[in-house]
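S.,

Sequence below, as promised.
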Amino acid sequence: MIDRGHRLALSRQAELLGISRGSLYYDPCPVSVIDLAIMRRIDELHLDYPFAGSRMLRDLLRGEGIAIGRERVTTMMRRMGLEAIYRRPHTSKPADGHKVFPYLLRGVPIERPNQVWAMDISVPQQAA
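The prediction came back faster than expected:
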C-alpha cells in the first residue's frame, strides 16, 4: 500500500489511506518462543480456571516451575484478550441522573379486568 519510492510524500500517502504516520515507521517486534509457550500454558489454565485472575495464574505457573510475575501475566492476558470471569462490584447500582419512578399502584385494589395494564420492554433471548 505504501510505496516509499513514489513521488507522493509518505505523510500524504498515510493521510489518503487513513492511517497514522507513526505506523509507517514502527516495526512490531516478534514474540519470543518462551513467551509463546507461557501464553499457551496461560490459555490452557484459563480454560480450566476461567475465574482465575493474574495473581492466581501466576501462582499456578510458579507451581509448575515457571518463574513469572503478576504484571507479566497481566500483560500476556491483555495481549491474548483473556479476562477473568467473576461478578463485578456495583452491578445493580443505577447510573447518576437516572430517575427512580414511584410505584403508582401501591394500595390500589384491582377489582375488574382491564383496570391495570403492564408492559415488558425487556429484549427476548435468542434461541441457541
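The first helix runs from residue 10 to 17.

Coffee later?
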